[in-house]
Amino acid sequence: MIIDIITVVPGILEGPFSHSILQRAQNKGIVQIRVHNLREYASGKHKNVDDYQYGGGSGMVMMIEPFVNCIEHLQKENTYEEIIFLSPDGETLSQNMANELSLKGNMIMLCGHYKGIDQRIRDHYITKEISIGDYVLSGGELAAAVLVDSIVRLMPGVLNDETSALTDSFQDGLLSAPVYTRPAEFRGLKVPDILIGGNTPEVEKWRFEQALLRTKERRPDLL
Q: What is this structure's pTM?
């Protein structure tokens, strides 16, 4: 899979993709994450990517031309199944959405800034709009990093234990059960006996019951 990210501040994305799971996924050749500087596709001496909005009002708007130039340049090299715009008024990111996107082909992600992007981009080029929550960020870069992470970690060969992702919160509509590791007792705080008894069916039953209880307490809307 190729994930191309278009941004006016590429430096923000240097860290998230150069460490841990995302770095390993790229080193294995499972995914290519490429960050493109939008200003390189802008015209004029100053390479402007924003301008005042028609009709007046506060805030600058990102121009249509640089985005279209970049998108069309990328489309000459590859085909893309999704062109995604990270926006607070998009569809809220969920585990089911991440699962679906992990099975897709190449995709482009657009990161907005300022007051937003020219609506004509959204109307004629974007195939999917995604929000990571009901709040506003300074730009779409951090949202793109979250989206990429949620997608890539689900791809075969990325995690050392591929079954791990299948037991994450939300995969079965529930929050995850509590987890423990060594030592079995620390300053009087003990791991539940059932987890160290070796009875796998009973352990799985306990985990399901705990996941159900935790979901009921913390996210009853999921039930």
A: 0.91
Three-class DSSP category at 206: helix
Q: How far is CA 85 from the centre of its chain?
A: 12
Name 108's bridge partners.
4, 83
Domains and CATH numbers, the chain: 2-152 (3.40.1280.10), 169-222 (1.10.1270.20)
3-state SS class at 152: helix
Residue 141: Cβ within 10 Å count: 24
Cis peptide before 183 (omega within 30 of 0): yes
CB 145, CB 93: distance < 8 Å: no
Q: How many Cβ atoms sit within 10 Å of the Cβ of residue 36? A: 17
8 Å CB contact between 60 and 114: yes
pLDDT digits (tens, 9 = 90+) for 71-99: 999 999 999 999 999 999 999 999 999 99
